[in-house]
Amino acid sequence: MANYLTFDGLVKKGWDKLQENCRTFWKIGMLDFLVALLLAAIVFYFWPISQILDDGGIILKYMDNFREGYFYSYNPADGPIFGISGFLHGIISGAFAWTKCFSPLNSLFASNYIGSVILVFSTIQVLRGYSENLIVPWVGSIWAIGFASDLILNLRQGLETPLHVGILLTLFVFLKNRNFKFLSLFGALAIVSKIDAIPVFGICIILFLIREYLETGEMNLSEKVKILAKWASPILVVWTTFCCLVFGSPLPQTAYAKLFFHPHPTGSWFPFLKHLSNYWDTFLLLLFLVSVYIFFSSRERKFPKAENFFLILSCLAYLVLYCIYNPHEQMSWYYAFPEVLLNLQILVLIFRILDEFFEKHRFILSLVSVFLLIAFQIPFLSTEIFSAKYLIENSVSELISIGKWIKSNSNPDEKLLTGHGFIARESGLYCIDYSGLNSKIATRQKLNLEKIVQEVHPDWMTYLGLIPRNVQMAECYELVKSGYEVSQFGGQPYRVYHKKPGFKTVTVSYPGNLLSCKEEIQQNQEGMILCSTANLEFKDLSTAAKTASLEVSQSYSISFGVERQVGKVLLSVEILGRDEKTLNREEIQVSNLTEENQILERMQECRILLDSQQEVDKLRISARNANNEPVAINLLGPVISLQIKNN
Asked: DSSP label at 630?
């Protein structure tokens, strides 16, 4: 005992204890860690998507400022703001950016890789608690993670998803290993990472206590409270105090804006759960395995072990919080953790059934089961990945190009109001986020666009669709550019407005019922008209031009997007009056689609100037190729811009 009173004695005691408790870790756990390093590296090396999501672009803007020495800043002039939901992800990525170890983008990827390693390692450790074979948990982790589509699509997107899910899964490792101290420690870290970990941490504590009571007949609540006070409370107290002093609150600005000011769906029971219908095959398989497990247990006169259902109970606890929160935007990363838990629960039940009720060939049956799961889901996963690749690379590339266009046409001291990360980052301007996720100005004005404009007077605005007429006229905002890529996926075009003092313009959507063509119009909603045709007419232009209910000055214009094709296309435009008299003719050249512009410049914006004094009734447009043959064009998002007389 006396030897332990010296420093050397304490070190020896600690080392002996470490060797005693971690003997298995050094033999198998270290090998599992190497496997996790390898699997994460393979995913990152072969990742097929070149761009990251626009939400990752928001965090990337923070990394730019971290690199310059500004802590958690969307705009350096505004000071710190809690706009990165995953606190630890922001700290780790920011540290890499600040020290200039990596570029801002690679700093995000570094955190994603660390999170992926933790995620794979924790998954292997969870499965190792249910399978004694060395290889089976490795293969099982490939399916549990690699075929959780909502998780795998967000592993390398610059978001906090892999790190946060990895930390959450460590809770189940310590729950299974009956280590309440580390459960408390990592539970606190999970809450610091993201506050949606609270119900998962809570259910893990409850499950730990219930299992202890079933096994020993007592819970030792006082002991557990002391452990929580020693291992979890200091971390949470320090983090809460830090957030209050630096950000004003431990509640992220993102959560604050979405919880109190963003719309929430109504009219159905738990709308957040609708996305889970994508997992119908998972639920059917899970129901089948539960039935099989209960059947074998009853036949053997065994009571099903509660610990075999820890994962599904935790999944329900996590989903309950989101059902209460009920976000309008049901992003894929919201479902990453539940999907992994469901996959793990399936594997746990398979391993338990084979272990408890099959005496022979457990290893072969386990491997065959996992490989069957992989083979069944490969087609679905590959389809989802390549669909996401097309969507992300096209839509994000357009956002980047819009941001760069604004930068090349603006002054450095101007301000931009936008809701998109890449537009904000590439513009290089002081930015106000009208979504409120990164700007307290927006939440202070309760996301009221007109009031935000009145407070900050932005020189530029970008919006998904047309901004309200009163906002356009408030400080003479003119529509100067449109981005149509997103319309290919059913959304309204991106619109760019610039303040132009001296005169007022109003831009309104061209009514879809006035567009005439022989072919069917695929979309016919306000601002989202899409048709493929060789000949079309814009009818009743004089009527449509007066939809703003304001007096129009000398000129107005109609603009729309046309998708470029492999060959050149010539649009012949005939401007007609009420009596079908031709008032004017003009031609528009739609440039050729090449490998260089097939993403960034796949759509060409066309604008036709009209004279209000001529009482134009319609535009007749025909499209022909280089051989003067009729060719169908994809036309999107037509709008009319009117110059208003100043009173």
From this structure: B
